[in-house]
Amino acid sequence: MFRQSIFKTIYIIFFLGVLAIASYYLYSNIAKADPIVGTNGDTKLLDFGGDIGARQVFVRISGKDGEMIVKRSFTSYCSQKLSGFENSVKIDSLVNLGGDEKLIEISGPVGVHAENRQYFFLDSNRCPKPLSFAKNGLVVYNIYSDEPSFKLIDYNSDGYLDIGAEYRNYDKNPLVDGVRDIYLSRPDKSSFVYSRSESFTWESECKECSGTIK
To answer: What is the pTM of this model?
Structure first.
């Protein structure tokens, strides 16, 4: 009888221990799993299709340090630092670059009236990787416009979108005159390379064509 009581006590203690461990695991890996983005961040469920499928994506800013986090599985995450943002960031959309290539577009206000953008793809490990922008030997991982206005257009007719970032021309009348820097997507689809700049006037640009085209 005494021995049965001991075994029963051990069994209860063991059961309570397992329950405590399971509860801790549930709290730490499920209840607290998703990152907190706060009021200066954003989160969206983006459908990449194919083998990747839908993924929860988070962006957040802490001071001037930001990061993107992709939920790879129920308890697994992958993160990447952001570049060029100040006080806030948001997820705009999933951009179809061409073919099966899809990019995560994020943006945020910088300065007085400019906008900063970054584009990310998911690598084979479902981790976010930023696309680079190369111009005159300088490589960065963000692009900005002080209009602000961006165009996503296939400028060289290769079946993939390129990017035109528009700026006010302060050498002329910045309210009317602008300069557009055009970056072409490279064959590996992991970077954009500066191609040319072109001048234009806002009055000659049709309103339907201005801004972002997707």
So the answer is: 0.80
